[in-house]
Amino acid sequence: MVFTFNDSSLSSITSERLLRAMQSVYSALCSLNLQDKVSITTAHSLAVLQTSYLPFAGRFHPDLTPCLTAILNFHLKTGSPFLINAYPYFAYKANPKQVPLEFVLFQPNSGIVDPATNLHYDNMLFAQIDAVHFAVESLGFKDDAVCVQISETGWPSKGDADEAGATPENAKKYNGNLINKLVCGKKGTPMRPNADLNIYVFALFNENMKSSPTSERNYGLFKLDDSSAYYTGFNSTGLLSTSSNTSTPPSSTGSSSSSSSSVPPGSSSSSGSTTSSTAVVVS
């Protein structure tokens, strides 16, 4: 992720270099006639938004607008997706007394209604995604001209004493309910109900070399010894079950997966169908 801090001078220089790198890789693909098979993109933190609540109010930081407009124009030209890393956990961690846990874990709840659009949201992730949709539209990219995809989301299974909600039970609910919603439920967000929605779960393994806080080292579906951090419904061949209510894992242990996607390896997270496209992420 390049654009995290609201520093216009740094963003301008970084954006120019990043965009040149993306254009260079794209030109190389064109020379090999591979531009329709490989997408060139880069991931952004949700912090590029100045406002994200309510979704209709979603807007990018003004200092980042020129940089992001240039990148969005690149995506429009090449047909590649605009990637966002979105973590409802951070919102819950920052204010656990005000943010309902059910709303961030895809559990039954009354949800929220955006009064500007009258759209109802029953989970925070989809509200965040639509905030990005509205931010993109505010720069003139209408009618889903640029596809928004979620390159990272997840929930930590362990945290420090002040990291509310970082438990195996909540991580299992978040990822399990997300999989249920994408694989077994309806497509899209309230703003884009008929659009394919690709979401990738972070991460496949815990990362013990990361610095504090503890949660940063414990987003993995698996531990470093290949054992499950919690039961996910995955084994070495892919998805076993999408039920997040399953409390007892199958008899086999030490299972692993070769993909950090929210569906079996080689599949699209929105429909489970095998895809033939590839993405190159420049960061």
UniProtKB/TrEMBL annotation:
SUPFAM superfamilies: (Trans)glycosidases. Keywords: Glycosidase, Hydrolase. The keyword Phosphoprotein does not apply. The keyword GTP-binding does not apply. Pfam families: Glyco_hydro_17 (PF00332). Coiled coil: none annotated. Residues 241-283 are annotated as: Disordered. InterPro entries: GH, Glyco_hydro_17, Glyco_hydro_17_plant. Signal peptide: none annotated. Belongs to the glycosyl hydrolase 17 family. This is Glucan endo-1,3-beta-glucosidase 11-like.
